[in-house]
Design goal:
The structure holds two protein chains of two kinds.
Chain A (H helix, E strand, L loop, with lengths): L6 H15 L3 H18 L4 H22 L17 H9 L8 H14 L1
Chain B lengths: L13 H33 L2 H19 L7 H30 L3 H4 L4 H4 L7 H7 L1 H13 L2 H12 L4 H8 L3 H22 L1
Classes of the chains: A mainly alpha, B mainly alpha.
Chain lengths: ~120, ~200
């Protein structure tokens, strides 16, 4: 036989109602916080507040970039090598180093070395 | 063109602000009206008040985010649909966790920080239900409800206690109306048998 809702379902409903109505204070407090938290998600952010937040964020970023932007340090300098000898200085001054580009100069240098050696 | 009235404090158009406030008020009223029963439904399903509170909080948040713009008449089944989804997910996670722990780490329960003596129900504290209606009736009903399969328990609580009609219960349980009737029929039979046996 198909069971139909009878008296015991009314009693069950009453028992459940009572159990829901007599929750302790800590539980009710947590339910209240949960509801407020959920409702905060439904509250639209007001346009003025939204623009204020954006402006504050932009200002903070600008300030941070200004403060932390790396300073321009001293210009890079060439490393110091050993001092020029007087002979090398004379060569540079006379422009004699131009002959190093001449292949005939090296040929003459080799021939001279063979001749003397 | 007529100037739209504005609130002097925040430049939001007055009608828009009023609409938002009214909607928040209605949402607050609705959540107040269901939160206690929702907590008890979740608690009967998961067996822990703390877990049930977490589930109800999640359900409230998800409901407000996803369904607040729906017509108010649809709110009850949609809210319980979200809660039912959370409860089902909780059971699924518990099953997986229990299977994994049982097969790979049988000693895990012994290492739990929770003191089983502290977690056990206090036989002297039967709860408001038993105190106000009668200890036997309250405990018998709670025990019988906890012993029901999840879907049967949800069908009974939503249909008989929460008072949703068959269509709304089907929406909340994400199943067809025929399934709701089957689950409810079995739940009524099992509960009646359990309570009669208790007498």
């Amino acid at each position: 036989m198909k069971p139909t809702p009878e008296d015991w379902t009314d009693q069950a409903r009453a028992v459940l109602d009572v159990s829901a109505q007599h929750l302790d204070a800590a539980t009710l407090s947590r339910l209240n916080r949960a509801r407020q938290h959920a409702l905060a998600a439904a509250t639209p952010v007001r346009p003025a507040l939204r623009w204020t937040r954006r402006l504050a964020i932009a200002t903070s970023l600008l300030l941070a970039v200004t403060i932390w932007w790396p300073d321009s340090g001293p210009a890079p300098t060439a490393p110091n090598g050993p001092p020029l000898s007087p002979e090398d200085a004379e060569l540079l001054a006379d422009g004699a180093l131009e002959m190093t580009d001449d292949p005939e100069f090296y040929a003459w240098l080799d021939a001279d070395a063979d001749h003397n050696g | 063109m007529t100037a739209q009235p504005v609130k002097s404090c925040d430049w939001m158009p007055l009608d828009e602000a009023q609409t938002a406030t009214a909607r928040t008020t209605r949402l607050d009223g609705f959540l107040r009206s269901v939160e206690r029963r929702a907590l008890r439904i979740a608690e009967l399903s998961v067996g822990s008040r703390d877990e049930a509170l977490d589930l109800v909080q999640d359900a409230m948040l998800a409901f407000v985010r996803n369904y607040a713009a729906k017509p108010e008449a649809d709110w009850p089944p949609l809210f319980y649909r979200v809660l039912d989804s959370r409860v089902t997910d909780w059971h699924r996670r518990s099953r997986v966790r229990g299977r994994w722990l049982g097969s790979w780490w049988p000693a895990a329960r012994e290492d739990d920080d929770e003191d089983p003596v502290a977690m056990a129900a206090d036989p002297a504290e039967a709860g408001p239900l038993a105190r106000l209606i009668g200890e036997d009736a309250g405990q018998a009903l709670e025990g019988a409800l906890r012993n029901l399969p999840l879907r049967q328990r949800q069908a009974f609580l939503l249909r008989i206690w929460e008072g949703l009609d068959v269509a709304d219960t089907a929406t909340a349980m994400r199943c067809g109306e025929g399934s709701v009737k089957t689950h409810l029929w079995r739940a009524l039979a099992a509960l009646r048998a359990a309570l009669e046996a208790h007498r």
